[in-house]
């Protein structure tokens, strides 16, 4: 969240320094700035962890415990509960299961909404008051104000992660995920009806907070869904759905906008529908396969 708040300002400063015609040079410097994360990850990887720092789960809470798996309605995953209790499901069996299909569809829909949100905030702000454009009748918003809206979006994500992380510990995570997706969808659709800097900034903050909440919940849902020796692989395969959804988001949004003569309404509608779809698939699909509670 805080990272996405800082990079747009850095990008704007680089463009001002090199000029719009030299945007490729600015892009190279921007890419170099992202290597900070790679360097940080390298040093984290080099750290030697002491054994007493690692928490060891008791046998009753072990991810491999047969009591933590619910196979009802999971189709081709395994033949019966006894076989599942004796042998953890393989990656292939999990990928062919309904729980994986629900999980990856949830990620794809959310990925589209999230990355479309990052795409439209600045262009939509800049579209206000542009001569000959669809929003020419409104007050113009300059590039500094437009990038500030993106800054607010990033800060709101950081705040949302902190606040909703606290909430997630005290309520059903599936309910929270659905609520975040619906709230983000409503705020995204509301963009079509606001045209001032203050209103766009307010909606950017709302979308940022609840987008962060959804992104915060999802990995914990996956950890619960695929607990076992294949957890890391399954989380990677499922979170790849973010990329699948993100890939078409900017170009499709651009197509919708240009085909509508500069009107962003169709883009906001598609985003909102997919955000709600992500929440519904998680609530009615993934939730069906949540592990059965263990009994003492």
What would your notes on this structure say?
- The chain is mainly alpha-helical.
- It has a single domain (57-289), classed as Growth Hormone, Chain: A, CATH 1.20.1250.
- Helix content is 68%, strand content 0%.
- It is built from twelve helices and no strands.
- Helix 6 (98-127) runs antiparallel to helix 9, helix 7 packs parallel to helix 9 (197-225) and helix 8 (173-190) runs antiparallel to helix 12.
- The radius of gyration is 22 Å and the shape is globular.
- It starts with a helix and ends in a 12-residue tail after the last helix.
- Mean pLDDT is 81; it is low at 56-72.
Q: What's the name of the CATH homologous superfamily?
A: MFS general substrate transporter like domains
Number of strands: 0
User: Which consecutive residue ranges, at least 5 long each, have pLDDT under 50?
Assistant: 56-72
Helix share, percent: 55-70%
CATH topology: Growth Hormone, Chain: A
- Computed structural class: mainly alpha
Report mean pLDDT, rounded to a whole number. Answer: 81
Q: How many domains? A: 1
Rg measurement, Å: 22 Å
Q: Biggest sheet, in brief?
A: none
- Gross geometry: globular
- The level 1 CATH classification is Mainly Alpha
Cα-to-Cα separation, first versus last residue: 40 Å
How many separate helices?
A: 12
Order of helices and strands: HHHHHHHHHHHH
Level-2 CATH architecture: Up-down Bundle
% residues in beta strands: under 5%
Keywords: Membrane, Transmembrane, Transmembrane helix, Transport
Protein name: Major facilitator superfamily (MFS) profile domain-containing protein
Subcellular location: Membrane
GO cellular component, one term: membrane
């Amino acid at each position: 969240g805080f990272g996405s708040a800082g990079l747009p300002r850095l990008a704007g400063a680089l463009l001002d320094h090199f000029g719009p015609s030299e945007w490729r040079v600015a892009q190279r410097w921007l890419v170099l700035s992202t290597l900070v994360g790679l360097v940080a990850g390298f040093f984290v990887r080099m750290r030697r962890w002491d054994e007493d720092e690692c928490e060891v789960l008791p046998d009753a809470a072990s991810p491999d415990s047969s009591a933590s798996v619910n196979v009802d309605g999971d189709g081709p995953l395994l033949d019966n509960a006894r076989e599942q209790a004796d042998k953890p499901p393989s990656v292939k069996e999990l990928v062919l299961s309904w729980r994986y299909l629900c999980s990856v569809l949830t990620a794809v829909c959310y990925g589209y909404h999230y990355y479309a949100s990052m795409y439209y905030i600045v262009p939509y702000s800049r579209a206000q008051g542009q001569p000959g454009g669809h929003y020419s009748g409104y007050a113009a918003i300059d590039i500094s104000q437009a990038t500030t809206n993106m800054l607010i979006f990033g800060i709101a994500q950081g705040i949302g992660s902190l606040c909703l992380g606290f909430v997630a510990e005290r309520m059903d995570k599936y309910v929270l995920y659905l609520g975040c997706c619906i709230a983000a969808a409503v705020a995204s659709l509301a963009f079509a009806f606001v045209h001032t800097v203050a209103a766009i900034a307010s909606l950017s903050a709302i979308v940022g907070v609840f987008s962060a909440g959804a992104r915060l919940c999802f990995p914990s849902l996956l950890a619960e869904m695929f607990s076992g020796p294949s957890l890391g692989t399954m989380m990677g395969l499922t979170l790849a759905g973010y990329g699948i959804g993100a890939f078409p988001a900017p170009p499709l949004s651009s197509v919708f906008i240009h085909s509508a003569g500069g009107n962003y309404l169709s883009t906001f509608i598609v985003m909102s529908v997919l955000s709600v779809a992500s929440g519904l698939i998680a609530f009615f699909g993934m939730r069906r396969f949540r592990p059965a509670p263990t009994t003492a």
